[in-house]
Design goal:
This protein has 256 residues and is of the alpha/beta class. The strands form 2 sheets. It has a 5-stranded mixed β-sheet with strand order 1-3-2-7-6, with helices on both faces. The protein has a 3-stranded antiparallel β-sheet with strand order 4-5-8. The two termini are 46 Å apart. It is elongated. A hairpin with a 5-residue loop joins strand 6 and strand 7. The chain is built from 7 helices and 8 strands, in the order αααααβββαβαββββ. The protein folds into 2 domains: 100 residues, no CATH class; 125 residues, no CATH class.
Length: 256
């Protein structure tokens, strides 16, 4: 019995730690809402006390010090709730920012290691064998996402079956339109410095994804460079698999 209680406590603690930013922000919003409700409820009482004080002092103008005491007493809980709400929201955002910074650092390290691995692989086995490996990886990629169990998105930009290796989506398009999108965005990148993955998806007629604004191609790290591979799906349909020689990088904005 004690072991079960211990396991439940451990799982609960892990869950709270994992979702602590969301919990803090949720508590903060609740605190702000509660502050408003408490303030509304306290107003009639404050008005009544002010009127009593006016009668007691036989004046329409209450000294600032007396007025502050009355208002402070009536609105103390509302003020405390509001302050606590702000503290929780700031704390939640701070934890999120620290985690995002850690994710960005880990992503950068992983990406650097993977790039070194690719370069050494190409150096040791040669370009032709490396191409064979990439083709095999593309084949395995679509095999893991059976087309029979997947939605095929109609973009209105062509009738060729395509598969995006980043988002794992099948869609109808054409290589001409995809290359056109790639070239248009690369031209924009010269002026705007970076292009997000979601902007690329918009250009080729796909819906945005949740992390798509945080994955970007930056002018300093290279242009969008699509590496298409023609494969057969499990039901023998030709499919263009979109791989990327230059993957979009995780972008962490420290300004928020």
């Amino acid at each position: 019995m004690s072991k079960n209680v211990g396991s439940i406590f451990t799982a609960l603690k892990a869950g709270i730690m994992k979702h602590s930013p969301d919990i803090l922000i949720g508590m903060g919003i609740t605190g702000m809402v509660s502050s408003t409700i408490l303030a509304v409820k306290a107003t009639p009482k404050a008005m009544a006390l002010i009127e009593e004080k006016k009668k007691e002092l036989k004046t329409e103008k209450i000294p600032a010090g007396e007025l502050a005491k009355i208002v402070g007493k009536c609105y103390s809980f509302a003020t405390a709730s509001g302050v606590l709400g702000v503290v929780c929201i700031v704390g939640g955002c701070s934890v999120k920012n620290k985690r995002n910074a850690a994710i960005a650092a880990a992503y950068s390290l992983s990406e650097s290691s993977f790039k070194s691995y690719q370069e050494k692989t190409l150096e040791h086995i040669g370009e032709k064998k490396e191409q064979v490996i990439r083709e095999a990886v593309a084949k395995e990629t679509i095999n893991k996402v059976p087309i029979k169990e997947s939605e095929i998105i109609v973009t209105g930009k062509g009738d060729v079956l395509c598969y995006d290796s980043i988002s794992g989506r099948y869609f109808k398009s054409s290589m001409e339109d995809i290359r056109k999108a790639e070239n248009n965005l690369n031209r924009r990148m010269r002026d705007e410095n970076c292009i997000s993955l979601n902007e690329f998806y918009d250009e080729i007629g796909l819906r945005e994804i949740s992390i798509g604004d945080l994955l970007v191609w930056n002018i300093d790290n290279g242009y969008i460079d699509i590496d298409p591979s023609t494969q057969l799906t499990e039901d023998d349909r030709p499919c263009i698999v979109l791989n990327y020689r230059n993957m979009p990088k995780y972008y962490y904005d420290t300004s928020w």
